[in-house]
Specification:
alpha+beta; 11 strands; globular; binds iron/sulfur cluster
Length: 315
Amino acid sequence: MKPFTYERAKTAADAAKSALRPGTKFIAGGTNLLDLMKLQIEAPQHLVDVNGLGFDKIEATPQGGLRIGALVSNSDLAADTRVRRDYGVLTRAIVAGASGQLRNKATTAGNLLQRTRCPYFYDTNQACNKRKPGSGCAAVGGFSRQLGVIGTSDACIATYPGDMAVAMRVLDATVETVNAQGAARSIPIADFHRLPGTTPHVETALAPGELITAVTLPKPIGGTHIYRKVRDRASYAFALVSVAVVVQKDGTGRVAVGGIAPRPWRVEAAEAAMPQGAKAVTNRLLTGARPTEENAFKVSLTERALASAIAEARA
Ligand code: SF4
């Protein structure tokens, strides 16, 4: 690990100001960042510890939703009685990820910001535009079974690896931030994770120094909530495909998919096809998909996972 300096921030604005210094990263749970530092994929010169900022509460909003502090642990969020009752897809998605120990440390904001698990991103001997902009992409023409089938570019075909954000996408969450001037901003989760284009190293809509303070959920939408995750082993593995589904009694609903794209993948227009079944939804959801030979199975796997989740919800 390379040497770095460390400070404990006292206010959000102070943390954001410190983070304007080049080479600075925020740290909270550290469940992703520390691994990346040990591998020298991330080599921050300065860490700003935000654990003391008090963003660790889940509160009701005047609009009937919930405001989840950025530092609420994944375990506490999944176990919250209001989340379990009204946003079941979120609890199910969170407990499908990582391990109990990791969920105890990992935070809401950190989960949103976790980085890809593309194997070439983790191998510093390989070209990777995300790790080293302009160096190329070893995954194109390489081992791509785990990688993306839609939303990718010639510069990067990696996927966003998380589960929690897939559920938040189907729930229309909003990410709240503060910048170094103390100005707050609300970013719809649909706009939070960026597609790679020619700049795959720029992964989110956050500006330099901008700090996530909370994630807000709108008022509950009812329906039956299912999160179905398909992976190579039964636990502690990232999704090949995951689906977050909310189905209403009249057969309408919402769906977002994980494991197939650089961000949680939702196409609202595809949801009009829910009453016609999973195949119709998948056709619209994956229009324009560019799978590789190795990961073309993810297209049919998406359809089957969706069919299974919709059937379970309707039952
Ligand atoms: Fe890097 Fe993206 Fe290519 Fe993987 S797919 S090697 S993360 S540029």
